[in-house]
Design goal:
By secondary structure, this protein is mainly alpha-helical. The protein contains 42 helices and seven strands.
């Protein structure tokens, strides 16, 4: 037999080989990374995490690609992820796919990811199939429960990604049946509902176990997360938890993680992990490195080399781009943009390259909008889209959205803005309209009160604002500020994205007012974290808002202050909002909630009267009236009002929770359990309802179910005295008095002024024969709450000193 021919290289392998051969510089960084694989994990010099950081254009992505090749030289199993995977499930899916390509599939993780996606799509598909028969009667409570289960991450938890965006909430909500109908039997229902509600908690332990398994079969496992400045808000906490012993399982010692981003790692998550991390800052190329790259590309004429060095500033992306089109010597007035496109003589392509710099990210449809080119012909949009990706400064992130490198995009924007202001405005107007169409499509089926919580809607809405601000900064600013108020109200944790949009529009449109707004808002948000109080304060003190806008900003700030326990400040903000806009139903409703929390029930009801007078069928005001009656000890009236609130908005879990507690008080335990089940199907993280359902389950003789609810509540909101107190009630009801006392002790350690826990502990102590201690607990309960009638009756019953 003739000898077999050697296997031919693929086209991609040849291209990659050429790219690697052209890589220059970064010798110290390559040596550092390579040397780490020569050190055993037990060596104190070994680093488990590398962090490459530096400004845009310094070559972080190129270095990460080289490092991945270096890891492969040491037999490492590798995977690389960028911002196209901006959630934990997306990252895990990308890693699993790349490991499978290298012959090491993560089968258990793949199965769970398949189950995760199937659960989402099953929820949508089954409910859509039921839609025709259920639509006439409107959404059933069970269908709304399933809708929430299927869409839980459409704003609340950034982990569903594109899957949630592909499900029409209107179709889901109009379907029939609840979680049992959607997911089948009880065991599968619980498993898949938890997977939908908490994908990170469910997927990560399986991922860790799989990584540990494959790590036994390879010398090293190397993971690379590029453009980390964009994904850190979603991944930072998860990665820190991943490295925390015992949190998700034990990681293998032969794992090396690389992060590449523009900023330093957040000390909140990484401050105590410095020993694990090798910090690798990157700066521009040295002149010697730049010359080496140019010589390798055949650019050797000294005058041309000096011109490239001048224009590029040593930024590798510009050196590489200009090396391909260095221009002629002596062209002292040639701009960087002309150099970027010097190799292209086709005027249509040159114009397309400039036009596609306008959107912050683009796909084929946006190319058509930006360029206004035909779909067919010699310069058809698909051909232009493909050609753009041949340019060295266009990054394709495998997510359907491409972007120009920032250091190239900036001069292209400047050239268009100054060259033809009329065309600049017209192009941005077209792009704003295109994103508005996407935004409106994403709004279908969403609650108008929660639009900003939906990631697809929010992204499109921010792009609309960006392009309108670029086209007409002065006239679009009020709209952008109103949007910020709504975002701070509905999704304050995403206020940074809104502030960043203003800052980018100010920079790209060269507008000082927008730049100042963006800078100051970003600084306020950075200083106060997820709380929007400082940003809203800027809007109130400096913005020319209408009375309606000012009232909305005050209400949003009042709610933030209320959540932080700043009741007097929250009450003041609601009062100011009513003074500015007396017909603000939200201000009246919000003030009613605060007054109720202060025990000022009649004043709260007066505010709710006014809110319902302004908006008669507003479910939230009706809901708060029912809750107020409940707290006033008027259960029958509360039940009637809460029935009406639920009918007005069956998708709201809160009226169901309140009604469940009312039915419990009235002794209707089965009905109460049904209400809590439905409330938690709509809102699986409703901790308050979990604790109250535990109380109902105890009354129904289900201590195992009650303790499971309390375990889940503790997991969601650790360290709450009420959860420990309720656990004590379960133990006391089942005769486990010593354990009950331990729970009450822990509850009182968390909150020494918890009068109810003192009273309940007294009964457990009495059952143990510790009567003097029981009397002392009841005395303390009455000292804390002189109106605690039950405790007073128990104290009289026990008698004594």
């Amino acid at each position: 037999m003739p000898p077999s021919s050697p296997r031919r290289l693929s086209l991609q392998q040849i291209i990659e080989g050429q790219r690697r051969a052209a890589f220059v510089g970064r010798e110290a960084e390559l040596t550092l990374f390579r040397a780490n694989f020569a050190l055993p994990p037990e060596d104190p010099r070994h680093r488990f995490v590398f962090h490459v950081r530096g400004n845009a254009g310094v070559g972080k992505t190129s270095l990460v690609r080289e490092w991945r090749e270096v890891a492969g030289e040491f037999g490492a199993l590798t995977a690389s992820v960028d911002e196209s995977a901006d959630s934990v499930p997306d990252v895990l899916a990308a890693i699993a796919a790349q490991f499978a390509e290298q012959g090491h599939p993560l089968k258990a993780l793949d199965r769970l990811l398949v189950a995760y996606r199937r659960a989402l799509h099953d929820a949508a598909g089954r409910l859509a199939a039921d839609n025709e028969t259920a639509s006439a009667g409107g959404p059933s409570p069970g269908a709304l429960a399933a809708a929430q289960a299927g869409l839980i991450a459409a704003g609340a938890i950034p982990v569903v990604g594109a899957l949630a965006g592909g499900i029409d909430p209107a179709v889901v909500a109009r379907g029939a049946g609840g979680l049992r109908a959607v997911f089948g039997g009880r065991a599968r229902q619980q498993e898949e509902a938890r997977l939908l509600a908490e994908p990170v908690r469910a997927l990560t332990p399986v991922f860790v176990a799989e990584i540990d398994r494959v790590a036994d079969a390879v010398p090293w496992v190397a993971l690379f997360l590029d453009t980390y400045e964009r994904t850190a808000p979603q991944l930072d906490r998860w990665l820190a938890d991943l490295l925390t012993p015992g949190r998700y399982g034990e990681l293998p010692a032969n794992l090396v993680l690389t992060l590449a981003g523009q900023r330093r790692l957040d000390p909140v998550h990484w401050g105590d992990r410095g020993r694990l991390v090798a910090d690798v800052p990157l700066g521009p190329f040295t002149e010697a490195e730049s010359r080496q790259l140019l010589w390798g590309r055949g650019v050797v004429t000294e005058s041309v080399v000096r011109e490239v060095l001048r224009l590029s500033g040593g930024l590798p992306v510009l050196v590489s781009t200009l090396a391909a089109n260095p221009g002629a010597a002596g062209e002292a007035n040639a701009t960087a943009v002309e150099r970027f496109l010097a190799g292209e003589s086709d005027p249509v392509r040159r114009a397309a390259a400039l036009a596609c710099a306008l959107p912050r990210r683009f796909d084929e449809d946006l190319v058509a909008v930006a360029v206004a080119a035909p779909r067919n012909g010699p310069h058809a949009v698909p051909d232009l889209y493909d050609w753009l990706h041949e340019l060295p400064f266009v990054a394709e992130r495998h997510s359907g959205h491409s972007r120009y490198h920032a250091v190239v995009r900036a001069p292209m924007l400047r050239l268009q803005r100054t060259g033809s202001p009329r065309r600049w405005k017209a192009a941005h107007d077209r792009l704003a309209e295109a994103f508005a169409a996407r935004r409106d499509a994403a709004a279908e089926g969403l609650d108008p009160e929660r639009l900003w919580a939906s990631q697809p809607w929010r992204r499109a809405a921010l792009d609309v604002l960006y392009h309108r601000l670029c086209a007409r900064p002065r006239t679009a600013l009020p709209e952008a500020l109103r949007a910020g108020i709504a975002l701070c109200d509905q999704r304050p944790s995403r206020a940074r994205h809104w502030a960043q949009t203003l800052a980018e529009a100010g920079e790209d449109a060269d507008n000082a007012v927008l730049r100042e707004w963006g800078r100051d808002l970003l600084a306020a948000i950075a200083e106060h974290g997820p709380r929007p109080t400082a940003a809203l304060g800027l809007l109130l003190t400096r913005a020319e808002l209408t009375d309606t806008d000012r009232a909305a900003a005050l209400v949003a700030r009042a709610w933030d202050r209320f959540r932080a326990g700043e009741l007097d400040a929250a009450l003041s903000d609601h009062g100011r909002a009513i003074a500015v806009d007396p017909r603000s139903e939200r201000a009246h409703q919000g003030r009613a909630v605060i007054l109720r929390s202060l025990g000022r029930y009649e004043e709260a009801l007066a505010d709710l009267d006014r809110a319902e007078e302004i908006a008669p069928d507003w479910a939230w005001a009706v809901r708060e009236r029912g809750e107020t009656y409940r707290r006033m000890g008027r259960p029958e009236e509360a039940l009637t009002v809460l029935d009406r609130a639920h009918a007005l908005d069956p998708s709201d879990a809160v009226p169901l929770g309140s009604r469940g507690l009312v039915r419990h008080v009235l002794g209707r335990y089965e009905d109460a359990l049904d209400d809590f089940d439905r409330a938690l199907a709509l809102w699986p993280e409703y901790t308050w309802a979990l604790v109250r359902r535990a109380r109902v389950r105890t009354a129904l003789g289900d201590p195992v179910g009650a303790l499971a609810d309390l375990d889940r509540a503790e997991e969601l909101s650790p360290g709450l005295a009420g959860t420990e107190g309720e656990r004590g009630e379960v133990y006391r009801a089942t005769g486990r008095h010593e354990e009950a006392v331990g729970c009450y002790d822990r509850a009182l350690a968390l909150d020494p002024d918890y009068a109810w826990a003192h009273g309940s502990r007294a009964l457990a102590l009495e059952a143990l024969g510790r009567i003097p201690e029981a009397r002392a607990d009841l005395d303390r309960a009455l000292e804390l709450d002189p109106g605690y009638a039950w405790a007073r009756a128990q104290r009289r019953r026990l008698g004594g000193g």
